[in-house]
Design a protein that fits this description.
By secondary structure, the chain is α/β, with parallel strands linked by helices. The chain contains 19 helices and 22 strands.
Length: about 500
């Protein structure tokens, strides 16, 4: 991944398959992206968790194409794929073999059971305190009792759901499994991998079983194995912000998941102090997002036990309630107990809806993202300024589907003609083309209601000045040959709605 803006997309939901996705990148989105993160394309793409519960992690779902299609796309664009580290589907060949043959299965040691961490793990040997300490992203027990064909029953570790069996990554079978995926990826020309759910991979008795010291070692070793095959790793962890900083210093690139809630807080409250404090210390070797296939992360800005977060408890509560207000309540209906996908740390909504479908606020939010330290990624729904898809949520019962719309060709063509999308595309081109972004980042001192983000590189300058009260963002670009100014505000956006251009001044 270079420093340009990257696209995040499902191949079946944007383009229909690999061929359709590549056609969009080559034509409608030409010049916007040099990198693309294709969300799980493994067999099947429509399991219990939208591809994140693969039956076969080394097989492309034939509805999308095959590995030749992956190689074709990766030959032209830097291709990122998900390595789902923690788990595999209960319908996988490996677990089905365990189901039939039990302890005699060749894959018996591939799966993690309660008694692997809690020896002699009858209930009496697992205290209530120990159970309470185990961190899980959704309510309920981390174990599922499964009866095998021979009548024996075992408590298998199932961090995410009963259909997603945790892998024993410390076993020889676990290493062989992960290595087989890495080798398959490398053979198709994939150069970047996203380590999904890696923070849950290592379990120890008496701990949270999440982001332990041993987890850092595991992530580092796995990243090295990927690097030896020519691939760079990106660690996906939703966690307390200090944990993100620790990962960045010890185990390579991470997502800046603190940025999305802080941008919303900034625009909701007309107060930039919290985001300024974060950007002073945020990892520089990060990938920035505002939206992904998941919900809008909240825990990433919240406190952890007695440790203060990026936002106070009252600010977190106000943030969540404002999202629900801005979306007309649809985010509330798609989050928490209201949806089968019970995420206790996320609010399910598109980012465009979370900003009340306000074009000016949305473009200012994207400008803040693009001027923040890190490599920006834009999710396909966000690229098209997509709205909450409650019809899909009603059909599937999965809250996060609110932000996983299936776009038809007609919808894509209509979306790219909308002024807000045209302006966003121009912002992406600006972020890709200016050499200043390869230089040094700074934040000049300004008022609480203002935010100034500056990049300088060998005489080139790119600066964003956001005046929150006026709802105006000014972008200044300066090189040896040219000075340009771009304005984002409601008046100019309305005036230029048919032009697809936010540029207002140019002096050569």
């Amino acid at each position: 991944m270079g420093n340009d803006v990257a696209l995040i997309a499902y191949a079946d939901r944007l383009g229909g398959n690999f061929s359709g996705l590549q056609s969009l990148l080559d034509n409608e989105f030409r010049g916007l992206f040099s990198s693309v993160h294709v969300l799980p394309f493994f067999d099947p793409i429509d399991g219990a968790d939208a591809g994140f519960d693969p039956v076969d992690h080394t097989r492309v779902d034939p509805r999308l194409g095959n590995w030749r299609d992956v190689a074709s796309l990766s030959a032209k664009y830097s291709f990122m794929a998900d390595l789902i580290v923690n788990h595999v589907s209960a319908d996988s060949l490996q677990f089905q073999d365990v189901q039939r043959h039990g302890r005699s299965s060749d894959y018996w040691e591939l799966f993690l059971r309660k008694n692997d961490i809690f020896p002699h793990s009858e209930p009496a040997f697992v205290t209530a305190e120990e159970m309470q300490r185990i961190y899980r992203p959704r309510p309920g027990s981390p174990f599922t009792a499964i009866t095998l064909d021979d009548g024996s029953s075992f408590d298998f570790w199932t961090t995410f759901s009963s259909k997603q069996l945790d892998i024993n990554v410390e076993s020889p079978a676990g290493r062989v499994y992960l290595d087989s995926i890495l080798e398959r990826f490398a053979g198709a020309g994939i150069r970047e991998i996203r380590l999904d759910a890696a923070g849950y991979a290592i379990k120890r008795r008496g701990t949270s079983c999440f982001m332990l010291p041993e987890t850092f070692d595991f992530i580092g070793t796995l990243s090295e194995r990927a690097q030896a095959l020519g691939m760079q790793a990106l660690v996906e962890i939703h966690s307390y912000y200090q944990t993100q900083r620790a990962i960045a210093s010890q185990a390579g690139r991470v997502y800046d998941f603190g940025l999305p809630p802080l941008v919303l807080h900034t625009l909701y409250r007309n107060d930039a102090d919290a985001i300024k404090k974060w950007l002073e210390v945020a990892p520089r070797n990060c990938v920035t997002v505002l939206d992904t296939h998941d919900g809008i992360g909240i825990m990433d800005a919240a406190r952890q036990d007695e440790h203060e977060g990026l936002l106070a408890d009252s600010e977190i509560d106000r943030l969540v309630e404002t999202i629900h207000l801005k979306t007309g309540g649809s985010s509330r209906r798609a989050s928490g107990d209201a949806a089968s996908n019970l995420d206790i740390y996320q609010v399910n909504s598109t980012y465009y809806d979370a900003l009340g479908r306000n074009d000016c606020d949305y473009l200012i939010a994207r400008a803040i993202q693009f001027f923040s330290p890190g490599t920006p990624q834009v999710y396909y729904v966000g690229l098209l300024a997509g709205e909450n898809d409650m019809d899909l949520v009603k059909r599937t019962g999965v809250g996060r589907d609110i932000n996983r719309h299936y776009y038809s060709c007609e919808e894509i063509q209509k979306s790219i003609q909308r002024p807000v999308v045209k302006h966003l595309m121009q912002l992406i081109r600006l972020r890709n083309s200016e050499s200043a972004f390869d230089g040094a980042f700074s934040m000049p001192t300004c008022q609480r209601s203002e935010l100034v983000l500056r990049w300088e590189n060998d005489g080139a300058l790119a600066q964003l000045h956001v005046e929150l009260g006026r709802r105006c963002a000014t972008i200044d670009i300066r090189t040896a040959d040219i000075e340009r100014r771009y304005i984002i505000n409601e008046k100019l956006l309305n005036a230029a709605a048919d032009l697809g251009d936010i540029e207002t001044e140019q002096n050569e």
